Structures are given as structure tokens and as C-alpha cells.
């Protein structure tokens, strides 16, 4: 047993090998990438960006062999795209991009990695002068019991030698160089078209190229690589994630998923509903601070959950509520008017534990379903407080601890 334990520890995938901070699966708003031998430069650049007022971190991808310096991480690509666009508005970060780290995206062949060996950066060190960057305003924390203090760090006037390897940006393709593709996204059981987004990912660079709406004919962007390999991903709440390989240079080779129809290619996505045992996070359900009242932008994902429950009357679920930490505090609850998405004078204000707050948040999701026709016997709730946090309580990802999860008990 001891030998097995040691072996499993030694060969764990993408763990902190040789004390390298490993990247988790998800989407990273990236500002720099460094060769494996340039850890010191990655650390310096992350510190430099942090001194500019951004919360920069760095992590290692053992699959690709690079250190990535990033300012934002999320498992929700829409959130990452929004943060990337905001960052690009800041001076000096106009070329920020979203790096997609996923074990499900194919690994490049060894000969391809050899050809893409990082080039040495410019010989002259770059001087970053203070005052060039505008200090960003601290964003409102999504945590219950921690209010982030606004802090400004002065960037020391020193020359920082960088060997940053810039990720190649995809140039704009000419109209005639793009493929016409129709994304046919269907409920696998009913064969009814469903709404959603299709992510187009450059497999070699693990880079998100574009996002398109399902049901549209689009001009598919070229990865501009010699393999032409793309991954087309649909990740709709209510359905299991579906990823289809697509070769831009030879689209007919993916014959199981791709078919030619006139002057366009049709990509078929059969989306499978969640099954018993699945536990999924509602990444687009947000709560007002210290409240069991949801923000208006939560409506879309709640409707998706409602549609799932109405489509299959056999579904039984448990709603799990989680907070950031276990400290007690103020709790704002809906009043008698049952306003799920609005703060008002009718709200009730009290005091309680983090577990109580998380329980109330799970219950408001359940009540939304019940008020919209789902039998309450099909829904259970559980409040965990901060017992199952996925990130450090005071870290830059702490707001992701505040979440609601749906467990499928019966399908």
C-alpha cells in the first residue's frame, strides 16, 4: 500500500512538479509566456505587472512546457473574454489574450514542439517607467466577509530584463481564406435546436480564437498553422460539454461530425443532458454581497436549469450553496414580495453564520424553480458555508468560492 501511495504521488498529472505552480483547467487572461528555463523572468514580470495595479500570477503548463503570466483566471470563458477586453483598454496590455488550459485539447506532436522552440527575446533590457500605467480602481469584492482594501504599490524605477515570448496573434484573414461553417447544436434526446455559444480554439497554441452563436453560418477563422487543427467546444449549462475536432485544412476528415452541404460545412453537436451523479457549477448565477438575492444577470442560467427540470420530470436535484470563508455576518434576505433579483426596502436584514447564508442561497434557487412549476419534492438543498472552498479565502480568485452547484440525484 505504501509503494502504491508513493507511486500515485510521483505520477500525478499536472501537479506542482518540481515545485512549479501548476495551472488548473480553465481560461487565463494572459500577458506573457516564458520558456521552462526562464522561471526567474516569469516571476519578475508577474511582480512588475502586479506593481502596475493588476493582480498578476504565473503558472506552469507541463503539457506545453511554458510558464504563463496571467492577470485573471476563470472556468467561465465569457467571464475571461470580458476581462481580456477590459485589460486591453489599459496602456501596455493591448495584446492580452485568453489562454485555454485543458487536458481535453490535443497535445502537439514532439516534432511540432521542436519547431516551436522559444526564441530569445531582444538583447536590450526593457525599462518600465513609473507613471505610465493608470492605476485601476479596486473592483468590488464578491466575498461576504472580506472587503479588499484599495492599495497602490509604487513601481520602482529599475531596468527589468525580460525574455518574454509573445504568443503569435492571429492575423485577420481575407474573406476568401475563411470557411463557411454552420453550427448545428441540438438536444440529443429531442433533436430540437438549442441556444448556446461555440468556442473556436487553436489546438496548437491552446488559444481561444473566437466565439460564435449556435445556429448561425459563420466565417470560421483559420489558426494559420501547418496542421490546421481546431477544437470546437459547446459548453452549455444543462448539458455535458461537447468538443469536436475540426481540421481547417481538411474539414472532410472529421466525417463523423462534419458534413458538406452546398457551399458550407455543417458541424453537428448532439448535446447530452446531465446524468445521475453529475455535479455542475452555476458559473453565471451571482448574488448581491451579504445577500441571498440574485443579481439580474443570473436569469439566463436559471432559465436553462428550469428548462432542464421541465423537460425531464424524472430529474431530482440537490442545490449546494457555498460562501467564501466561515465568518458570520449580515444577511439580506428577500421580503414577502419574493423579489429574487432586486434589492428593495422590503428586504429583510438579519445576522447569521456563513452556513445559514449559503443555505438561503441554495433555497432561493429552489424557490425560483418551485414558483415556476417544478414540484418541490424533486429539489433538496444543502448549505456548506465555507467548508468546501476551491480557492484561497483572501486570494484573487476568492470570489469563485461564492457559488451554487447542482447535483443530479436522479435522471
Task: Give the spatial strand order of the biggest sheet.
Answer: 2-3-1-4
Described by strand count, sense and barrel closure, the largest sheet is: 4 strands, antiparallel
| Class inferred from helices and paired strands | alpha+beta
Shape: globular
Summarize model confidence as the mean pLDDT.
Answer: 80
Q: For the record, give the distance between the C-alpha atoms at the N and C termini, rounded to a whole number.
A: 37 Å
Rg result: 23 Å
Element pattern in H and E: HEHEEHEHEEEEEEEEEEEHEEEHEE
Helix fraction bin? 10-25%
Account of the protein in words:
The chain is an alpha+beta fold. Helix content is 17%, strand content 28%. The strands form six sheets. The chain has a four-stranded antiparallel β-sheet. The protein has a four-stranded mixed β-sheet with strand order 10-7-14-13, with no helix packed on it. The longest helix is centred in the last third of the chain and has 18 residues, at 354-371. The protein is globular and about 60 Å long. The relative contact order is 0.11.
Give the secondary structure arrangement, pairings included.
Blueprint: H1 2-10, E1 26-35, H2 39-51, E2 57-61, E3 66-74, H3 77-88, E4 97-101, H4 110-115, E5 126-127, E6 159-160, E7 179-187, E8 197-202, E9 207-213, E10 217-220, E11 229-234, E12 242-247, E13 258-261, E14 264-271, E15 279-281, H5 299-311, E16 316-322, E17 329-333, E18 348-352, H6 354-371, E19 379-383, E20 403-410
Parallel strand pairs: 7-14, 16-19
Antiparallel strand pairs: 1-3, 1-4, 2-3, 5-6, 7-10, 8-9, 8-11, 11-12, 13-14, 15-20, 16-20, 17-18
